[in-house]
Amino acid sequence: MWCHLKFIINQDACLTNIINIANSYINLGYWPKYFKVLSMIIIPKPNKSLYNQPKAFQPIILLNILGKLIEKVIAERLQFTVASNDFIHLSQLGRSKFKSTTDAGIVLTHIVQSGWAKGKSTSFLAFDILQFFPLLNHKLLTLILEKAGLDPKVTSFFVNYLVKRRTSYV
Fold first, then answer.
1. Does the pTM of the predicted model rise above 0.70?
2. What is the mean pLDDT of residues 122-136?
3. Which of 34, 45, 69, 97 has its C-alpha lying 20 to 30 A from 78's C-alpha?
4. What pLDDT does 93 receive?
């Protein structure tokens, strides 16, 4: 369980080993097949009067817990690298460290009021990027990672990370 894993990684030796595993995968440009197999369960949403519509159910994706932890380590490192290279636009707040919904609200308010000051009507469009990710063009992602100044080993890792993923239904 996640609570047990959190207890284990509080031990410096264990955390060091997990970081070393993540480093090895990046250096090899490889993500193991057993981390690419996702399990999906579909559960009914509570308090629905009828369960004859797909919207009455919620799909949940289950990941290998060690793989998920290694992904978190890699995500932290990636976020640090792109932020320190000023590759993330200042208005990009989603999933960023040290950013909050208050920060997002302030940025949005500033954009709207700047438009009003120029006598313009202002609107915005919000969408869930996580739902977009599976449709992302892999070659485009590779070019973006290269432009961000990432090490070619990191780019190679992500190319391998994205291929031959599959979901099984439990």
1. no
2. 62
3. 34
4. 55
- Nearest-10 Cα torsion for 102, 107, 108, 109: 90
Structural Rg of the chain based on CA atoms: 20
Which of the two residues, 117 and 138, has the higher pLDDT score? Answer: 117
CA atoms within 13 A on the CB side of 1: 2
Is 52 among the domain residues?
A: no
- Mean per-residue pLDDT, 117-138: 70
Do residues 39 and 61 lie in contact, with contact meaning Cβ atoms separated by under 8 Å? Answer: yes
Sequential DSSP letters for 2-39? HHHHHHHHTSHHHHHHHHHHHHHHHHHT---HHHHEEE
pLDDT at 27: 92
d(CA 75, CA 4): 21
Classify residue 54: in a domain, yes or no: no
> Reading across the β-sheet that carries 37-44, which strands appear in turn?
57-62, 37-44, 166-169
Tokens representing residue 83 in the block: 């932020």
Total number of domains in the chain: 1
Using CA atoms of 65, 68, 73, 78 in order, give the dihedral in degrees to the nearest 10: 180
pLDDT digits (tens, 9 = 90+) for 73-96: 888 877 777 777 666 665 555 555
CA distance 38 to 35: 7
